[in-house]
Amino acid sequence: xTEGALSETAARGGAxxxxxxxxxxxxxxxxxxxxxxxxxxxASCLSSGADAVIDALAEQVEGAGLTDVAxxxxxxxxxxxxxxxxxxxxxxxxxxxxxxxGLDALVTTLAAVTSDSxxxxxxxxxxxxxxxxxxxxxxxxxxxxxxxxxxxGYQALRTAVTSMTPAQVLTExxxxxxxxxxGGGYPTGLKWQTVAKALGDVKYVICNADEGDPGxxxxxxxxxxxxxxxxxxxxxxxxxxGARKGFVYCRAEYPLAVARLKIAIRQAxxxxxxxxxxxxxxxxxxxxxxxxAGAFVCGEETALMASVQxxxxxxxxxxxxxxxxxxxxxxTLINNVETFxxxxxxxxxxxxxxxxIGTNKSKGTKVFALAGHIVKTGLVEVPMGTTLREVVFEMGxxxxxxxxxxxxxxxxxxxxCIPEQFLDMPISYESLAEVxxxxxxxxxxxxxxxxxxxxxxxxxxDFSREESCGKCTPCRVGTTQLWMLLDKITGGEATxxxxxxxxxxxxxxxxxxxxxxxxxAPNPIxxxxxxxxxxxxxxxxxxxxxAGVCAMVRQGGER
Amino acid sequence: MLAELTxxxxxxxxxxxxxxxxxxxxxxxxxxxxxxxVQEAFGYLDTTALAFVSEALAIPPSRVYGVATFYSLFTLKxxxxxxxxxxxGTACYINGAPAIxxxxxxxLGIGPGETTDDLRVSLLTARCIxxxxxxxxxxxxxxxxxxxxxESAIARLGAL
Lengths: 559, 160
Fold this sequence. Notes:
The structure holds 2 protein chains of 2 kinds. By secondary structure, chain A is an alpha/beta fold.
């Protein structure tokens, strides 16, 4: 897509884009660099005016005659709520809510700072993270290959293709215990082995960048901050399973991520890190981007493959699994962005190193997107096994306005709401499933007592009924009927018999639907009924909404 | 076959579309990419364009129409001069997006997916634009504004 197309998409889909204009930045001193200002240029900070900040900072640094200070564009610094963000690399000092007219103090700091300067106190939001997938986010310029190479980029790929056999790569991945970060949690090593064993001389690798869960923006941030890392992971996967061609299926709503991926692919090809004969070996790997066009179901792997092939994104029954018959009937490996981003460090440090992090069955780290009624919204990467309380209260600063915690929603439209009694539960695939939610891709929406759980369930059901592709009846009709029943409840016209019907229909949709969308669509209802049944009952018996959200008027028929 | 592409008119924007089709080697797999290009050039997908793409890729018009109507980013109607997108992601939703949408609907007199009669403003909703830390978010002509209220959104629309 051209830049024109990107802004068009932005106007329609709503995401911000700033095609790279030739500016005064990055300011790179010709001599030694004494201090570096890292300006976050990921989507959220850009939306708050980061481009004006970097222009102004570059100008003021030049104006102050600081010839040994660099002003650098970097990816996501994580604390999105306080954007635009600028970090002083040497001390870790973070300037929040930077504005072009308020940079004097920062320029003074930059004039004085040296590598011996004391480290700034770091916010627990940042200090308590364990960064593996996001280790380069906010440190390197996502549009500069040299920057990625300088932090050891593509070393893992080089090591893999020159001194490891595909079987050794597979072993490391299996040892690492890494599981699919898109939400399914399927063991990555096992998936790779299956594709590697599949017969056929043409195989494909797909990176699922169709991050569709509302409230989840981890993949977007990784792609915008460190696109080469994802490409490197895909190439290593290609080497391990015997594929020479990869596709990144990215949602069109992420124009900046697409733009940076395109730049990264071009750069990597020029340097011989993608394309034919990588590092003078016989292994070659090429990557192409395929754009989505706004369909949640395309996050489902079989629907995604239909879309990559230019068709309607409707799923098909499995088996056959993509590992044996995927794109154009060939064996295909599909992993999520975050999964691929974890590959290079695993190859670099060994699978055993990665397996040493996390819990017994859920290894490594997970990136979570914190949003909703929480003080510090943004991205955190924590080891599996961290508790929800640590994430929400110690790192996230608790709820906005100090209001009471009600629930945390994980897993988007396929997940559930987790009440207060589970706050001390260590986060893992298993524990979240046990309490009726799912890990999902990593969105965490914190809700205070102003949120109505019935309304939240209805919100997700509205989402699912609109995004149902319509291929199978239980999902197409079931989600609509469930939404209508919930509308009856929030409209103050329901009886307890309707609630019973909600429960039995939810079970039916879960059992009968063709793909994950339908099978998980009732989860928000089931989990809120499990923990907040009284709210449903109050809506039905007393005809009122305890949280004061529902107008007790039916919406039905509006569309 | 590719050399014989005949654009429906001499509108120069067809050249962009033709170039995209050639770059894809006329492969039907590139259908979504090509529809993106058409929409980028013309603002929407009309029947002439759909018929042209169908012929150029040698696939049935039903398949082109099926794809064009399956994906929510494609539109078959001309868009308004301005695009107002209300994000309805979860974070925006629980922070007041429904009230903002209701106010804009009342003010413009149109629902999501519709355009005012004078073709000035199109109202759209987004599933989630991933700017959750700014919730609730309204995007006007690509400019993202966070922390919106019904009043601030209406004020921005009024300033168009």
